[in-house]
Specification:
CATH topology of the largest domain: Diaminopimelate Epimerase, Chain A, domain 1
Number of strands: 16
Number of helices: 4
Number of domains: 2
Distance between the termini: 8 Å
Radius of gyration: 18 Å
Structural class: alpha+beta
Strand content: over 45%
CATH architecture of the largest domain: Roll
Helix content: 10-25%
Order of helices and strands: EEHEEHEEEEEEHEEEHEEE
Shape: globular
Largest sheet: 10 strands, mixed
Length: 269
């Protein structure tokens, strides 16, 4: 199978967007092979063509991904030769959501600036998980397609994270799960993401949905609108939320996207 894909760098969350058609049932296997070929790659999205002007984005685990959505917007601007400094507004069909996602992209020298309206959390709740010889209670933010467990202030160490997340993900309904090791004082977190279909763990350098989850958790705790700059290994993602007194009613993330090389590979599945 000959495939064409483009490498994107949204806050160093290296994303491979496959622009060649790939049947949905083959996408997890293709994603696994591409991640083997691209050791810096952290996730794979597939463009699906449904007879419309804009393709649909299907992530490898069926989750919603803000960084990949911004990457698709940057790809569309590049395809349409959008002039530098002008903003293009898109409504994009993306996995993990039932409605088109608003995304704005502004090409600037060397990269693009993107903002994505994220799907709202389905719920935010405390969950008890097995941990060591006992149990641990941690907040979980349920976003469409992905559940993020937040481990604040050293409650979970990095060397414990993969084994813990593998066990905990089985207790959650989402096809992808994240464990976010959060330093609240520094407003910094390290995101680990596990996709069940591909069996892959990735320590992401910048996680859009993880940023959204942390923003929602702070919003629910403080019961107020938030505008946060969340540092991660690859850079900073801004999160803006609105709170109506009982729930998060608005959620967006903003960051930068760099477009890398377009490549063609022949893959045997």
């Amino acid at each position: 199978m000959e495939l064409e894909y483009t490498v994107f760098d949204p806050t160093e969350n290296i994303t491979l967007l496959v622009t060649s058609p790939v049947p949905r049932q083959m996408q997890p296997q293709v994603a696994g092979r591409l991640l083997e070929l691209e050791p810096d790659g952290e996730q794979v999205g597939f463009l699906e063509y449904c007879g419309t002007a804009q393709p649909r984005l299907q992530m490898m685990g069926g989750e919603f991904c803000g960084n990949a959505t911004m990457s698709l917007g940057a790809w569309l601007c590049h395809r349409e030769k959008q002039p530098l400094g002008t903003t293009e507004e898109f409504l994009l069909e993306v996995s993990g959501t039932d409605a088109p996602v608003p995304c704005s992209v502004t090409p600037v020298p060397h990269c693009s600036l993107g903002t994505v309206s994220m799907p709202l959390p389905e719920k935010i709740e405390q969950r008890t998980f097995p941990f060591g010889d006992g149990e641990i209670e941690l907040p979980v933010v349920f976003l469409p397609g992905i559940c993020h467990i937040i481990a604040p202030n050293g409650t979970v160490q990095r060397h414990q994270a993969e084994n813990a997340l593998r066990t905990w993900a089985d207790r959650l309904p989402c096809q992808a799960a994240g464990l976010l090791l959060l330093d609240q004082e520094q407003m910094h977190f390290d995101p680990l993401v596990y996709v069940k279909d591909t069996g892959t763990f990735v320590w992401e350098r910048g996680c859009g949905s993880g940023s959204a989850a942390v923003g929602c958790w702070f919003t629910a705790m403080r019961q107020a609108d938030q505008c946060l700059s969340l540092k991660q290994p690859g850079g900073t993602i801004a999160v803006v939320t609105t709170w109506d007194g009982s729930a998060v009613t608005g959620l967006s993330i903003s960051g930068t996207v760099k477009i890398g090389k377009t490549k063609t590979v022949d893959i045997t599945i």
